[in-house]
Each structure stands twice: as structure tokens, then as C-alpha cells.
TrEMBL record:
Lineage: Bacteria, Bacillati, Bacillota, Clostridia, Lachnospirales
Provenance organism: Merdimonas faecis
All copies of domain Ribose-phosphate pyrophosphokinase N-terminal, residue ranges: 16-166
InterPro entries: Pribosyltran_N (IPR029099), PRTase-like (IPR029057), PRTase_dom (IPR000836), Rib-P_diPkinase (IPR005946)
Protein name from the UniProt record: ribose-phosphate diphosphokinase
Gene Ontology CC entries for this record: cytoplasm; ribose phosphate diphosphokinase complex
């Protein structure tokens, strides 16, 4: 039975409300629009029942804000009641475009600032909402997920703090290491991945792409992305290769050991198109070096698919590599802030995740299984069948 059919037979946990913080306003509005449409199309026969009070609505978003004082301090405000509601709080901790002033000085909001605002909204809602859920696409401090020598465990501490504040479910995407959920073993933690959205965006951008062993190959840029590449290669039925990073562990630059070289393990890629799969692009140096080496080994087109496009050093290097023919497409999701400049690049493709998030929220609100949402294999196979048959999707 599909999730849509399950939802039509299930009762909502409580009336749905979504609090999209300023960092996530645009994505929150798209998610809201999808949910409005889902529920308008529902075939429930008892919508007049009190159990479905406010089930169909033109808007599930609530007004919330975190105004700041001149000193930089802030407070969380909810402009409408959320008592008895199933509240989903959405935050993008990587949205650096927002600013505030501290004693007249302009500050760009950091992940720490966004996390504090999240806690402020939770604090304003706690004790009143029926259930609290947090949607944090890029998991706060997820790159500091394990301890080496004398280091902090920031991500685990943040998850424990949210659980202690009364959050029932934490929903994230492509966590750097999902094992961090072991810090809150008795609380809900769901980690979703976007392979279906990647393939949909790629096949729309490259309608002539042939998906078979003779023409396509999946490459992991390092050991950490292996599980993503293995899944892609198995579902698509193509070969896989891997680069591993040789690092200089005697020095630390920018908080990490510098990469000395990338070494490739895998079959000959000459003449094949290549998809490089990873969880994020930060500065992009590592990814671009891998793309260059792949192209120098005789690959055809090179497509980069990453969940989070942070582009911390801007787009100049990506422009240079595109002009040099090392990369053909860079596909990232809209789960984190994308500067307008990115959307103007001829090589850039955004994979829209708003419908996926709307399905997740709706499934959680009805308290039904999310197994079909978690496993995109059937949807990818259906997508490939349409692509090979020339059917629009």
C-alpha cells in the first residue's frame, strides 16, 4: 500500500503547523504549498469529523521571528497559538545571507546563530505544542561528529540538548555520519537521502544520457562517500570507482590535514560519462581535483552530485574548471541557501527537495510508516524506465 493510501486511512496525530525560520522561509513556503495541494486532493470521507479539524487549510505556516536588541541578544516569538499542534520547526543553519547588528556592526549569521534561534523558537513553543519536530536539512555541527584526541563532540551535544528541550523527532538529510544518532538512542532521528532527486534533475538536464555499464560510471571522491556510490551503482546497474585521499598528517591547515594527492581505484573510465557523488561541496578543491583527474583519464562528461552546495570559496574555481572542460554539471539540492549567483551558472542544476520534505512531514503527521519514503529504489527504477522510453517526467 502506498503512503498516499495509508494517509487517507490514518488520523493525524494533531493539527499540523510549520514554523519556518527566516533562514528557511523560501523552502518552507514551497513545502507548505505542496502539503496544501496534497490535502486538497485527499479522498478522506470524514473531513467533517472533529478529528479532522483544520485538516484542510490554505496555509500551515505560522508566523515566528527572532528579533534582536542592539547588543545582539535576541528572543524567540510566536505570533499565533500552537497549543495542541503537531509543530515542525524548519531551520537552515548554513544560510549566511542573513545579517544582524551588534553595537552598530554588521554580522552575518553563522550556524551557531541559527542554532540559537532554533532553540529560542522551541523554547517559545515548549509545553504548549502537542509534539515538537525539528527539520534541520544540514545537521548542525555534523562535521564535528567524532572525537580525535582532545576535541569537543559538538553534534552529539546539540542533539542531546534538543532532546532535553522536548523535541520528539529530528529530521535531517545526508548526515556526515548518521551514527551520531547514537547520542540520543531513545529519541526519533531520521536521516533521508536524495538519490532520486539527483537522478531526476540530472536526466532532465542531460536527456541524452545513457544509463548502462558501457556509458556510465559512478565515482566516490573519498572513502567516506563509498556507501552513496555503492548504492548508486547498484541501483543504476553500472560500475563504480573510488578515489582515496593521501593526507599530510604532520600539519593542520584550516582545521584539517591537507590533501597530498588523490589516488584512484577502479576500472578504466576512458570514454565513459562519470557521476561523482558526495554529501557536500565546501570549498570544492577536493571535488574539482577529482573531476580533473577523471577527465585526464579520458572520461566523457563529468557530473558532480552533492546534497549540500556550500561553496565557501565562491564560484571562480568552478567557472575555471567548467571553461577548461573538467566539469559539465554541478547538481546540488536546495536544502541549504544557494546564492542567486549559483542559479545563473550554465553548469549549475538545483534538485528541488520541497515535495520530498512535504511528503515526510505529511507522513509524520499521520504517524504512518516512512519506509517507502526512505527507500527511493523503486522510484529510481521507474524514472529510468520513463527516461529510456522517452516519456516526460
Amino acid at each position: 500500500m502506498s503512503n498516499i493510501e495509508l494517509m487517507e486511512k490514518a488520523l493525524p496525530v494533531a493539527p499540523l503547523k510549520i514554523a519556518a525560520l527566516d533562514s528557511c522561509k523560501e523552502l518552507g513556503q514551497k513545502v507548505n504549498n505542496y502539503i496544501v495541494q496534497f490535502r486538497k486532493d485527499t479522498r478522506k470521507e470524514s473531513l467533517d469529523s472533529p478529528l479532522f479539524c483544520n485538516y484542510q487549510s490554505d496555509n500551515y505556516l505560522i508566523s515566528c521571528r527572532c528579533p534582536r536588541f542592539g547588543s545582539g541578544e535576541a528572543k524567540g516569538l510566536l505570533d499565533e497559538t500552537i497549543r495542541g499542534k503537531d509543530l515542525f520547526v524548519m531551520v537552515d543553519v548554513c544560510n549566511y545571507s542573513l545579517t544582524y547588528t551588534v553595537n552598530g556592526h554588521l554580522n552575518h549569521m553563522s550556524p551557531d546563530d541559527h542554532y540559537q534561534d532554533l532553540k529560542r523558537i522551541i523554547s517559545a513553543a515548549n509545553g504548549k505544542a502537542h509534539r515538537l519536530n525539528v527539520i534541520m536539512p544540514f545537521l548542525y555541527e555534523s562535521r564535528q561528529h567524532k572525537r580525535t584526541k582532545r576535541e569537543s563532540l559538538d553534534c552529539a551535544l546539540a542533539l542531546q540538548e534538543l532532546a532535553d528541550m522536548g523535541v520528539s523527532n529530528i529530521i535531517t538529510f545526508d548526515a556526515h555520519d548518521p551514527r551520531v544518532q547514537n547520542s540520543i538512542p531513545l529519541h526519533g532521528f531520521d536521516n533521508f537521502n536524495p538519490p532520486y532527486q539527483f537522478m531526476k534533475a540530472l536526466l532532465r538536464a542531460e536527456p541524452d544520457l545513457k544509463v548502462d555499464k558501457e556509458h556510465l560510471m559512478i565515482v566516490s571522491p573519498d572513502e567516506g562517500a563509498m556507501h552513496r556510490a555503492v548504492y548508486f551503482s547498484n541501483v543504476l546497474g553500472v560500475d563504480m570507482g573510488m578515489f582515496y585521499k593521501r593526507r599530510d598528517y604532520s600539519t593542520v591547515i584550516g582545521g584539517k590535514n591537507p590533501i597530498v594527492a588523490h589516488e584512484f581505484l577502479g576500472d578504466d573510465i576512458r570514454g565513459k560519462n562519470v557521476i561523482i557523488v558526495d554529501d557536500m561541496i565546501s570549498s570544492g578543491e577536493s571535488m574539482l581535483d577529482v573531476a580533473r583527474q577523471i577527465k585526464e583519464r579520458g572520461a566523457g562528461r563529468v557530473f558532480v552530485c552533492t546534497t549540500f552546495g556550500l561553496f565557501t570559496d565562491g564560484f571562480d574555481k568552478f567557472d575555471d574548471y567548467y571553461n577548461a572542460g573538467y566539469i559539465d554539471r554541478v547538481i546540488t539540492t536546495n536544502l541549504t541557501y544557494l546564492p542567486p549567483e549559483a542559479l545563473e551558472k550554465p553548469y549549475f542544476v538545483a534538485a528541488d527537495m520541497s515535495k520530498f520534505i512535504a511528503l515526510i512531514i505529511d507522513a509524520f503527521n499521520h504517524d504512518i510508516t516512512i519506509g517507502n519514503v526512505l527507500d527511493p529504489t523503486d522510484r529510481i527504477h521507474s524514472l529510468l524506465e520513463k527516461h529510456r522510453a522517452g516519456i516526460p517526467f
